[in-house]
Amino acid sequence: MKKLSLLIVIVLFTMASGVAQIYKPVKWSVASQKLTDKEAVVFIKATIDNGWHIYGLNAPTGGPIATSFAFGASKDYSLNGKVAAPAPKSKFEKVFDMNVPYYTKEVVFQQKIKLNKGQTTVKGTVEFMACDAERCLPPEEYAFNVTIK
């Protein structure tokens, strides 16, 4: 009887673990390109699974969490302007009762950097929210760092 009970418990745990999925629909990668001795660009790329999207940099107040960037302070570099991105798509989402900007499949964000030193490491985080047709995941942060040589 104990063996049968143990077998039932193992089967139930196995089934439950198959149902409880951890969604990671967005993969991030970072690269840099030195333009001159005093300027570089950091590229932060989001690769988004089919059926999912993330929101643009300028999502309206009261809507979804906009994608945003925070860069670590450093005496080796300073930011040159704001994060640039391609124009997002836009659609009306009932849940927010507004038009929202979003990206699907892939998007590359760019941040220009003024260099105070020939070689440095740029560190930062990106906060984003991913949704599909059925659900939105809680906002996440991705920490990144990239060396500029």
Structure description:
The protein is mostly beta strands and 149 residues long. 12% of the residues lie in helices and 52% in strands. The protein contains 1 helix and 11 strands; from the N terminus they run αβββββββββββ. The protein has one helix at 2-19; strands spanning 26-36, 39-48, 53-55, 68-71, 77-84, 89-93, 98-103, 106-115, 120-128, 130-131, 140-148. Strands 1-2-8-5 form a 4-stranded antiparallel sheet, with no helix packed on it. The longest helix is centred in the first third of the chain and has 18 residues, at 2-19. The radius of gyration is 21 Å and the shape is elongated. The N and C termini lie far apart (67 Å). The model is unreliable at 3-7 and 9-19 (pLDDT under 50).
Which keywords apply here?
disordered N terminus, 11 strands, 149 residues, single chain, 4-stranded antiparallel sheet, 1 helix, elongated, mainly beta
Order of helices and strands: HEEEEEEEEEEE
Based on secondary structure, the structural category is mainly beta
Strand content: over 45%
Write out the strand line-up for the largest beta sheet, numbering strands in chain order: 1-2-8-5
What is the 3D form? Answer: elongated
Quick summary:
The protein is mainly beta and 149 residues long. 12% of the residues lie in helices and 52% in strands. Residues 3-7 and 9-19 have low confidence and may be disordered.
Please give the structural blueprint.
Layout: H1 2-19, E1 26-36, E2 39-48, E3 53-55, E4 68-71, E5 77-84, E6 89-93, E7 98-103, E8 106-115, E9 120-128, E10 130-131, E11 140-148
Antiparallel strand pairs: 1-2, 2-8, 3-7, 3-10, 4-9, 5-8, 6-7, 9-11
